[in-house]
Amino acid sequence: MLRWIDVLTFARYSNPEPPRRVELAEAEWARQLPPARFRVLRQQGTEPPYRNAYCRCYEPGLYACAGCGSRLFDSATKYHAISGWPSFTQPRAPNAIKYTCDDSLGMQRMEASCNVCDAHLGHVFPDGPAPSGLRYCINSASLVRIPAGQDP
């Protein structure tokens, strides 16, 4: 189980090695992704709170990166954080997420990105529920839900 100290260590020293890499030119990403997804995934955008696909979705399944399809989160770790965006307590695997310090907008936050394709997902905070204390606050536009039993 990852804890805040692990996230800080990854961001400061070295993120875990991803299982594979997907690297495309930004023009190719722009061609493949719908504009709303491109804005979030490739331009570090944020979708409006509460009016997104997975904020209130608690059905069993997995959540994959909308850019490359990497499995990122399991619905078993999703919870109602009242943040306006889907929230998770843990990634599916320790090397699924890449962590970067984000000082934009006058705030100090920890950016969460797909470790395979570098797509912006959202942010992770140390104010989640026990036992990990983590809250991955993720844009629905960065995810694709795979219903339980449909993951190959």
TrEMBL record:
Keywords per UniProt: Oxidoreductase
One Pfam family here: SelR
InterPro entries according to UniProt: Met_Sox_Rdtase_MsrB (IPR028427), Met_Sox_Rdtase_MsrB_dom (IPR002579), Mss4-like_sf (IPR011057)
Enzyme Commission identifier(s): 1.8.4.12
Catalytic activity annotation: L-methionyl-[protein] + [thioredoxin]-disulfide + H2O = L-methionyl-(R)-S-oxide-[protein] + [thioredoxin]-dithiol
UniProt domain MsrB: residue ranges: 26-148
PROSITE patterns hit by this protein: MSRB
NCBIfam families: peptide-methionine (R)-S-oxide reductase MsrB
PANTHER family (UniProt xref): METHIONINE SULFOXIDE REDUCTASE, METHIONINE-R-SULFOXIDE REDUCTASE B1
Descriptive protein name: peptide-methionine (R)-S-oxide reductase
Organism: Hymenobacter fastidiosus
